[in-house]
Amino acid sequence: MAVLTNLTQYTYHKAASRSGTLWQRQGPTLLLALATPLLLADLVRHCLQDAGLWTGPSSSMYRDDCDEVSGIHGLACLTLVGWLFSILFTYSGFVLMISAVFWSASLGSKVRRAWSQIQAAT
Questions:
Q1: Cβ–Cβ under 8 Å, residues 8 and 104
Q2: What 8-state DSSP symbol labels residue 70?
Q3: What parts of the chain have a pLDDT lower than 70?
Q4: Where do transmembrane segments lie in this chain (predicted)?
Q5: Which residues of 41-69 are buried (b: 16+ CB within 10 A; e: fewer)?
Q6: What pLDDT does 29 receive?
Q7: Which residues fall within 8 angstroms of residue 41, CB to CB, at 6 or more apart?
Q8: How far, in Å, CA of 73 to CA of 25, rounded?
């Protein structure tokens, strides 16, 4: 949690040196602020279950009618909670985080510039 919130704070402070509209300056910060709770959702679910604070069938990650939960078969056995927390929230959080970091680092323009230099040298 500390790493994600510190990364968000860093991009917020870095935005002061950027020019452009509010979205162009603070877009990476907003994406990271959205990514943080999404990435932490499954971890919080595990903690709540381990502490006995979220019990019952509504907290179950896997369906009861599945025998073996491993590999690709495990995906077919996920409940709605399993799909939401383990797949949707986690993966969308990573997509937002990676997009925000690339955007904040201006990686696209740096790659284009390097590619142009490579093409010009050959």
A1: no
A2: -
A3: 68-73
A4: 80-103
A5: bbeebeeeeeeeeeeeeeeebeeeeeeee
A6: 95
A7: 85, 89, 90, 93
A8: 43
DSSP letter assigned to residue 20: S
For 93, the token pair is 């959080």
User: How many degrees, rounded to 5, is the angle at CA 108 between CA 103 and CA 113?
Assistant: 140
Residue 75's contacts (CB-CB under 8 Å, 6 or more residues apart) are: 87
Helix, strand, coil tally for the chain in percent (to 5): 75, 0, 20
Contact predicate 62/82, CB 8 Å: yes
**Residue 101: what residue type?**
V
Q: At what angle do helices 22-50 and 90-104 cross, to 10 degrees?
A: 150
Would you state the pLDDT for residue 1?
Answer: 84
Q: pTM of the full predicted structure?
A: 0.81
Question: How many residues does the structure list for the chain?
Answer: 122
Taking alpha carbons only, the member of 56, 60, 51, 5 closest to residue 32 is 5
